[in-house]
Amino acid sequence: METMTPKERIDAVIKHQAVDRTPFTVVDGGAWIAKTEGVTYRELWVIPSLKKLKEKLPFYKYFYAHVCGASGNRVAALRECGVNVFSVDYLVDFDKAVEAAGEKMVMMGNINPAGTLLTGTPSEVYKEACERIKIANGHSHILAPGCDLGADTPLENVKMLSKACKDMA
Question: Which of 9, 54, 118, 157 has the fewest CB atoms in 10 Å of its CB?
Fold first, then answer.
């Protein structure tokens, strides 16, 4: 069995995705924190690969990324790569992420999917959603779960996201 280096795997995915013109998602899997001789994996391979991918996909208006976990410190780097929609997990300090995003990046997410949405009450969901809208304060923002929406999430809780958007408009 042939073994590929992480860079070779990323390059292979980018080549395949750019040729097929299919959407591309980078899965974190710890790659953002791994070190290679004092240089982060992100600096060495992920950022250059994302920049190369963005150059090969000029026909996409939106270049979306989601990084699980406390990824707020990656906002500026992703913006520099051309990412203009960044979905952040609920663990991210949304105030700081919105500030780091600047005017060219749409922030998405940040509602606790397994806590508030799945197990919280509709009023708790509504309150958290309104808080995120207030933090965004006119910045481009897509109110959404901070990651995936659990299959058993109560419909009433999901409806509270829409209600918060309408009420805060």
Answer: 9
Per-residue pLDDT reduced to its tens digit, 2-40 = 566 766 766 665 555 444 443 444 444 333 333 334 446
- Sequential DSSP letters for 25-65: ----TTTTT-EETTEEHIIIIIHHHHHHHHHH-TT-S--EE
Angular region, 21: left φ>0, alpha ψ -120 to 50, beta rest: left
The pTM of this model reads 0.72
Which neighbouring-strand residues pair with 67?
88
Closest CA to 96 of 128, 74, 64: 74
Alpha-helical runs (H) found in 75-117: 75-80, 94-101
Question: What mean pLDDT is reported for the chain?
Answer: 80
The full DSSP string for 127-163 is HHHHHHHHHHTTS-EE--BSSPPPTT--HHHHHHHHH
Please give the Cα distance from 34 to 36 (Å, whole number): 7
Region for residue 111 given its phi and psi (left: phi exceeds 0; alpha: psi -120 to 50; beta: otherwise): beta
